[in-house]
Write a structure and sequence with these properties.
- The structure is a single chain.
- With 128 residues, this protein is mainly α.
- The chain has 2 domains: 54 residues, no CATH class; 65 residues, no CATH class.
- The protein contains 6 helices and 2 strands.
- Strands 1-2 form a two-stranded antiparallel sheet.
- It is globular, with a radius of gyration of 16 Å.
């Protein structure tokens, strides 16, 4: 998010992204306006008014469907971990970077972020 401004109000720096189409926005008010204007926004049809980073995935088995992501977000262990200010800082650092993959590699060197991602992977892709 380090570049540009909110795609709704065009004034403030964006702090968040629409969970459906990844359009950057700055506040709850702007999110509500976005959803009211784009009732059909989906991950498959991003808002083209404001470009967002696209991830390229070579192996489609790595994709996680929205229902599984939603259930993952509702798990207490994940919610508790996401309350940690240091983890929040790391996630924002990755998401806001123009070189996200390098930032991810950097934070993966630390134990806290690695433990968090291991929890997620255990849930998303449990080992038999």
């Amino acid at each position: 998010m380090g570049d540009g401004s909110c795609c709704v109000c065009k004034e403030a720096p964006p702090k968040y992204k629409c969970p459906s189409c990844r359009t950057p926005y700055c506040s709850v008010t702007c999110f509500k306006k976005h959803k009211a204007l784009h009732t059909t926004c989906t991950a498959e049809s991003p808002n083209t008014a404001c470009p967002t980073k696209a991830l390229e995935v070579e192996d489609l088995s790595w994709l996680v469907d929205n229902n599984r992501l939603r259930s993952l977000a509702e798990l207490k262990g994940i919610q508790d971990a996401l309350r940690d200010p240091e983890l929040q800082r790391m996630i924002l650092q990755i998401d806001g970077s123009s070189e996200s993959e390098k930032e991810l590699e950097k934070v993966m060197e630390g134990q806290a972020f690695r433990e968090f991602t291991d929890k997620i992977l255990d849930i998303v892709n449990p080992q038999e």
